[in-house]
Design goal:
Elements lengths: L3 E10 L2 E7 L5 E4 L6 H9 L12 H4 L8 E8 L5 E7 L6 E4 L2 E2 L11 E4 L11 H15 L3 H21 L4 H33 L9 E6 L6 H10 L1 H7 L10 E6 L4 E2 L5 H23 L4 E4 L8 H14 L3 E5 L13 E8 L2 E6 L6
Parallel strand pairs: 3-13, 3-14, 8-12, 12-13
Antiparallel strand pairs: 1-2, 1-4, 4-5, 5-6, 6-7, 9-10, 10-11, 14-15
C-alpha cells in the first residue's frame, strides 16, 4: 500500500479555524465556491514535504486572521510501513517547527516519509515566464525521486548567499571564497545530477505510457561544468565579474528546463494555453508513474483547480489515470459536477465559508 494521509487536523490555518478530517487512501475531490478555503486544505498537505508548500508562503502568512495566535497542522501518515505523526506549527514572528513522532526534526526529514507532487494554477504560465519557476518545478520532481535533494539545494543556496555577501562587501581574501566555492561545487554537482536523473526518469515514464495527455521532450540547459573541480575553478575565475555584479553569475542556480511538445515538435512556450496545461498534467502523471515503478508506491498528488480547464473526456482520463496509479490525490474544483466521473472511487469533500471561517464536510454520497 502506498503511504497516504489518514488524518489531517488544522488549527487556525488560514481560513480554517478548526478542521479534523479522516481519509481512507482514495482520491479526495474537494469542491466549494471560490474563496471558501479549498486550496488552504491542500496547502496544509503540501507542507508535509520540505519547503514552503505550494504557495511558497512564510510561516506568518499562514496564520489565521484576525486571531493571529499561531497555527498548527497535525497529520497521520499510514501505509507502506510504520505509521507516523507529523506536527507542523508556528507562533507569530517565529519560524515553522516540525515534529515527527513527537521529536523535533528538520524539514528535510519529511521527504523520507511521503513523496508529494503538485500542480497549481500559478504554474499555468510556467513555460512563458522566468526560469526560476521552471527550476523550482524541476526541483520538486527531483525531490520526489531523491529525498536528499532538499539538503543539496539548501547547502548550495546557503554557500551561494554567503559568497554573494562577500562579493557585495568587496572582500578580497581568496581563502574565504575558496571554502565557499568548494561547498557550492560539491552541492551543485549533487543537485545537478539529481535534476538530470529526474529528467531521464520522466522521459522514460512517458515512453509507451497509455495516456490521453501529450508527451514532452525535456532538457536541462546550463553551463557545461562537468565536475565539482571544474565548477570550483570556474567560480574562482569569475570572481571579478561576480564582484562587479554583486552576485554569482554561473552555476546551477541559473539553469533552465526546456520542453518541446513532441507531437508538434514545438517549444512549449509557443504552444496554446490548453496545450501548455496538458503538458504540465502529463509531466505530473509521468512523475507519479515513474515513482510507482521505482518504489512500488504512488506519491500524493495535489491538483488545484485542474478539472475546470479540461473537457469531460480529458477530465475522465485524468481521473482514470490517478485511480490506476492507486494514488491519494487531493483535487479541488468549484462544483461537485466536476468530479462526477470519479463516483465512488473518491471521497467527496464540500468546503463552505461559515461566517468568515471555512468548514469542510464529507458528502454521504458521490455527486451524480
Amino acid at each position: 500500500m502506498s503511504p497516504f494521509v489518514a488524518r489531517l487536523a488544522l488549527s487556525h490555518f488560514r481560513s480554517h479555524r478548526r478542521a479534523n478530517l479522516a481519509f481512507d487512501g482514495r482520491p479526495v475531490a474537494i469542491f466549494g465556491r471560490n474563496g471558501a478555503g479549498k486550496t488552504n486544505l491542500i496547502e496544509a498537505v503540501s507542507l508535509l514535504s520540505p519547503g514552503r508548500g505550494l504557495r511558497r508562503a512564510g510561516a506568518d502568512e499562514i496564520i489565521r486572521r484576525p486571531e493571529a495566535i499561531g497555527w498548527k497542522v497535525t497529520a497521520q501518515i499510514t501505509g507502506g510501513g510504520p505509521d507516523h505523526e507529523v506536527v507542523l506549527s508556528a507562533e507569530p514572528n517565529h519560524p515553522r517547527l516540525t515534529q515527527i513522532d513527537g521529536k523535533t526534526a528538520a524539514q528535510t526529514a519529511l521527504a523520507r516519509l511521503l513523496r508529494i507532487i503538485w500542480l497549481v494554477p500559478a504554474q499555468d504560465r510556467l513555460w512563458i515566464e522566468g526560469a526560476d519557476g521552471r527550476r523550482r518545478f524541476l526541483d520538486r520532481i527531483a525531490l520526489s525521486f531523491f529525498p536528499e535533494h532538499a539538503e543539496a539545494v539548501l547547502s548550495y543556496e546557503k554557500a551561494m548567499r554567503e559568497r554573494n555577501r562577500l562579493l557585495k562587501d568587496g572582500v578580497q581574501d581568496a581563502r574565504w571564497y575558496g571554502a565557499l566555492e568548494g561547498q557550492m561545487a560539491d552541492a551543485g554537482a549533487r543537485l545537478t545530477a539529481h535534476r538530470r536523473d529526474a529528467i531521464a526518469r520522466i522521459i522514460a515514464a512517458q515512453e509507451g505510457a497509455v495516456t490521453a495527455f501529450p508527451t514532452a521532450a525535456l532538457a536541462l540547459e546550463m553551463d557545461d561544468l562537468a565536475t565539482p573541480a571544474d565548477f570550483a575553478a570556474a567560480l574562482s575565475e569569475s570572481r571579478s565579474r561576480d564582484m562587479a555584479a554583486g552576485r554569482s553569475l554561473i552555476g546551477p542556480h541559473r539553469a533552465d528546463l526546456s520542453a518541446i511538445y513532441s507531437e508538434k515538435a514545438m517549444p512549449a512556450a509557443q504552444c496554446s494555453t490548453g496545450e501548455q496545461k496538458a503538458l504540465l498534467i502529463s509531466l505530473v502523471l509521468a512523475n507519479a508513474r515513474a515513482l510507482k515503478a521505482e518504489t512500488g508506491s504512488a506519491p500524493l498528488v495535489l491538483l488545484d483547480e485542474v478539472a475546470a480547464h479540461l473537457d469531460s473526456g480529458r477530465r475522465a482520463a485524468l481521473f482514470d489515470e490517478i485511480c490506476q496509479l492507486d494514488a491519494q490525490a487531493f483535487m479541488t474544483g468549484t462544483g461537485p459536477e466536476l468530479f462526477t466521473e470519479l463516483g465512488a472511487r473518491a471521497q467527496h469533500l464540500s468546503v463552505t465559508d461559515q461566517g468568515g471561517a471555512s468548514e469542510a464536510r464529507f458528502c454521504d454520497e458521490a455527486p451524480s
